[in-house]
Write a structure and sequence with these properties.
Radius of gyration: 15 Å
Helix content: 25-40%
Distance between the termini: 42 Å
CATH class: Alpha Beta
Structural class: alpha/beta
Strand content: 25-35%
Number of helices: 4
Strand order of the largest sheet: 5-4-3-6-7-9-8
Order of helices and strands: EEHEHEHEEHEEE
Largest sheet: 7 strands, mixed
CATH architecture: 3-Layer(aba) Sandwich
CATH superfamily: Vaccinia Virus protein VP39
Number of domains: 1
Length: about 170
Amino acid sequence: MLGLVSTYYEGARVPWVPTREELLDIIMKLANLKPTDAFYDLGCGDGRVVLKAAKEGVKKAVCIEINPMLIEKAKESAKVENLLNKIEFINEDFFKVSLSDATVIYMYLLTSVNRALRPKLESELKEGTRVVTLDFEIPGWKPVQIIEIALPMRTARLYLYVKGVSDK
């Protein structure tokens, strides 16, 4: 039933489609995670990506999700993985949450939502912050790296952006 959940960010409907498990290691490697990183997942859904970042040992892991049913599922998954105390869960519209201390951001949203988020990213992120998106680009930003991964039935595309490079 959760696969049918839709959420609304700034009036845009975003269907919840979980990031595939086989992409998690690739996402973490592309993000070049460090122990000092503050990892934010915008629209974290069931929390699988932020849980992986927490397991990788980031300093701070933040799961932002507007849908209360999904944030509870993320919390439950964190509890099962014994990571509940390592992740901050924010049940809110990510447009209303400060991203200023993020050093890595992950997004699996839609191009239209990424476009709407661009001004927020440009005004709040510090130089050098890495932004990884799955399948959907940030219009107006130039990725520093694109990785294509062949999956059954489709090819996934990961984009890596760096604040101060991609937005120039």
